[in-house]
Amino acid sequence: MQEIIDRFIKYVTIDTQSDPNNAAFPSTEKQWDLAKVLVKDLETIGMKEVTLDDNCYIMATLPSNLEYNVPTIGFIAHIDTSPDYSGTKVNPKIHKNYNGNDIVLNKKEGIVLSPNYFEDLLLYKGQTLITTDGTTLLGADDKAGITEIVSAMKYLIEHPEIKHGKIRIAFTPDEEVGKGAHLFDVEKFGAEWAYTMDGSQIGELEYENFNAAGAKVTITGKIVHPGYAKGKMVNSLLIANEFINKLPKKEVPEHTEGYEGFFHLYDLKGTVEKTELQYIIRDHDMELFEKRKSHFQNLAESINEAAGSNVISIEIQDQYYNMKEKIEPVMHIVDIAEEAMKSIGIKPLIKAIRGGTDGSQLSYKGLPCPNIFAGGHNFHGRYEYVPVESMIKATEVIVKIAEITGKRAKK
Q1: In the chain, what is the greatest distance between 2 CA atoms, to the nearest angstrom?
Q2: Confidence of residue 411 (pLDDT cuts 50, 70, 90)
Q3: Per the residue annotation, which of 148, 175, 198, 384 is the catalytic one?
Q4: Rounded Cα distance, 24 and 27, in Å
Q5: Residue 319's pLDDT is what?
Q6: Smallest Cα–Cα separation from 199: which of 145, 156, 238?
Q7: Is 145 within 8 Å of 172 (Cβ atoms)?
């Protein structure tokens, strides 16, 4: 346990926040700081073919210790943390033998992690939790996944009696800004399939995700002196308000769950003369996804028609698609992960991701890639936490997947 705690804290205290407004790759220079540490750690534990390319992708190999052919499999996690909340000066707090009560994250600012609001905390009574100090995110998304992969590789190297085929691992930049798989070299990686260690609660096993698009709405107004504005002023802020209110009010993240899609307004800035809205559009079903994009565009056109001019312009860009289409033909890779979990006493929670991972894009690039829990909760904010026992179990799942893949190949 202490080794995993130490490794995790070492990684989360390195700031790797990515930047959605920077087209560079990676989007922030500070992601290199963790990448270089990881290269050294992988070499130290005995991994082979450790590489760090010009785009900040790390890859490494654990050679097979079997005499017969086994499919090469992979494990992947991302090094960046979300731009939604500060990742600077992360100060993790360790809470041993959690008693089920409120956890005071920051007494001075009155920030409390409470099971009255975050009920999942009660799943981990008696366990060791790592939290924030209330001023930053934690970074378990996805430094828990990185910790687990490195720890599992170290364990397999130290225990050659566990037989396995060739294993490839990769750590990617910029997953949180949707670019993590864009320059991933699937051919160089050389695995038949892989698993992203990027889920949340212990037991999660996912091979479905949203179809996703980003949308920018630009409203152009006209500014004149308000005392003489009649018939002349066009207030872009009010038109933006009209656009927002004409979208389905209940089809937003805070009112949807399961397979329900949504429109999510996450940024708004404007003046009378110009207002910009940033949305994400999500749906698991491709047909409904296309209808959502059409509805978005049609709404803008109807407002333009009523205004008698093009006051609204829309830019919609697809981001990723539901990997279910690419996973279902090779469902044995999900079966292996499910068997691995059951073999160590974990009840698999097979469900659709209300989001996306590098795995969704990688699946469409020819690398089928389901997602497995990393153990954290409340990602992207000050209330993020991870039970250490969940990270230990995720590490064991990786080891078991490697072992089961080797045994199945022999059959």
Answers
A1: 86
A2: low
A3: 175
A4: 5
A5: 87
A6: 145
A7: no
At 249, list the tokens.
Answer: 């009010």
* Contact assessment for residue 64 and residue 212, using Cβ atoms and an 8 Å cutoff: no
Burial class (CB in 10 A: 0-12, 13-18, 19+), 187: exposed
pLDDT in tens, 351-389: 888 887 789 999 999 999 999 999 999 999 999 999 999
**Which token pair is 273?**
């003369």
68-80 pLDDT, tens digit per residue, is: 999 999 999 999 9
Nearest alpha-carbon partner for 333 in 233, 205, 147, 167: 205
Long-range contacts from 334-338, C-beta under 8 angstroms, 24+ separation: 334/205, 334/207, 334/370, 336/401, 336/404, 336/405, 336/408, 337/195, 337/205, 337/370, 337/372, 337/397, 337/401, 338/205
Distance CA 308, CA 231 (A): 13
DSSP 70-119: ---EEEEEE--B-TTS--TT---EEESS--SS-EEEETTTTEEE-TTT-G
| Residue 347, CB-side half-sphere exposure with 13 Å CA sphere | 0
The two beta strands, 58-62 and 48-52, are antiparallel
Is-catalytic flag, 175? yes
Say yes or no to pLDDT of 313 above 70.
yes
φ, ψ of residue 365 in degrees (nearest 5) = -95, 5
pTM of the model: 0.89
CA separation for the pair 37, 33 (Å, rounded): 7
Q: How many CA atoms lie less than 13 Å away from 320 in the CB half-sphere?
A: 28
Of 148, 276, 270, the C-alpha closest to 217 is 276
In whole angstroms, what is the distance from residue 249 CA to residue 409 CA?
Answer: 51
List 15, 19, 41, 80, catalytic entry: 80
In the annotation, is 142 catalytic?
A: no
Whether the Cβ atoms of residue 45 and residue 138 lie closer than 8 Å to each other: no
